[in-house]
Amino acid sequence: MDGYERTVDRVRDYILQFSLDNCAFGNQGYNRVLLQLFGYMGHGKSTLINSCKYVLDDGEYRIYAKASASISSVTFNRTAYPLTNIITIVDNRGCSTFNAYETGEIYAQLGNFIPLNEKVEWTNNYEDMIDRLEDSEMDPNFTDVTIPVFVYSVKKGLAEGEKKETKEFIDNCRKMTGVYPIVVLTHKTYGDFLQAEREFQLMGVENVIKIENYTKEDHGRTQGRHKEILHFLYSILEDVNFQMKYKRNPRKERVERKKFLLKFLHEREVNQNL
Ligand SMILES: Nc1nc2c(ncn2[C@@H]2O[C@H](COP(=O)(O)OP(=O)(O)OP(=O)(O)O)[C@@H](O)[C@H]2O)c(=O)[nH]1
Ligand SMILES: [Mg+2]
Question: Given the CA of residue 95, which atom of ligand 1 is nearest to it?
Answer without folding.
Answer: 25
